[in-house]
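input
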Amino acid sequence: MATNFSDKSGEGSSPSSVVLENDDHVQLNFGDFKLCLPKMNGFALSLEQRNHLPPRNVDLFPNLAENHVKIVLYVHNRPQYLQVVLSSLANVEGIEETMLIVSHDGYFAEMDKLVQGIRFCQVKQIFSPYSPHLYSASFPGVSKGDCQKKDDPSKNNCTGNADQFGNHRSPRIVSLKHHWWWMMNTVWDGLPETRRHLGHILFIEEDHFIYPNAYQNIQLLTKLKPKLCPDCFAVNLAPSDVKSKGEGWDSLIAEKIGNVGYAFNRTVWRKIHAKAREFCWFDDYNWDITMWAMVYPSFGTPVYTLRGPRRSAAHFGKCGLHQGQDKNLACIDNAETNVELEEADKVPNIKTNWPVYVFKKQGGYNAGFKGWGGWGDHRDWDLCVSFAYMYHSK
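output
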């Protein structure tokens, strides 16, 4: 698949350059591919209508800062976690100058209520209308006649493609990857509030505790990246090792992109977007492992992120994103953060004259990893590619 776009900024095609687009159209070469978006049910349609509502709190914060970094928080259904995250965001210095976009995978009343209670900045809510959690009797939920577990379609007369381990799709699991990809395409190319945003966008999850200095540090990093790390594709608030608090050196760090508090610009999004089929056809239900093992290696160059030597965000909690909803297999904790803030975490703690230390070789998931499976059904592949196509189709 090829993506054609014009760079009118004159800054070339390096990952740190900014693409200035005068229109919203990106030409995609999908061959004979046709959009495969399922018909929305009534509830999904009502949520899609909410996606078009303007941001709230504009009366409290009428003006966004000129060079603000927008923040996207993606959530499922862990209200005890979300309360912690929102409390931490309320204490972030500079949060009032930007917009928080909350992307929901499914609809859950308590999560909705918490987001509607935000008063510390402009806030926009979006709901994936194709979330499997919204469909109880049809794809992308469970359809009648779907193969289950390790069913053999020829023997069981059922529908579906098994993954590399012989397992058929689980809607609850595939929603992880679907939501992230739908959200990315919607934020960058669908929302009027962001589809012409030329700066960086910061992405966080509902189990990320955000430090008071996070927003100011991310602004510093985005300014330093073109000069100090022109080959860096992104900036991060925390190390790629989620258990690490950072090295504490008098140095910036360039390493592989982590999944806690990462930010990139539209130029990098276009590179990711151009790899839609690589993303959508890789047999792993995790978006981040798919990026590490398949998408980033396909760029042909090392893919680094720039961060500080101390974390400005922390992963907390024991329950995974879609754990805790089954009454018989509930994953329960008290959303204790175990995060001890020091004075250095409350003020910008990145120095503009620091050198950059590069971690050239790191462990974890890399090119050649075959994936954890859970993503073998061709209907999921087509829906995933459709998300990349939906805002660019005539």
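quick obs: The chain is about 25% helix and 15% strand.
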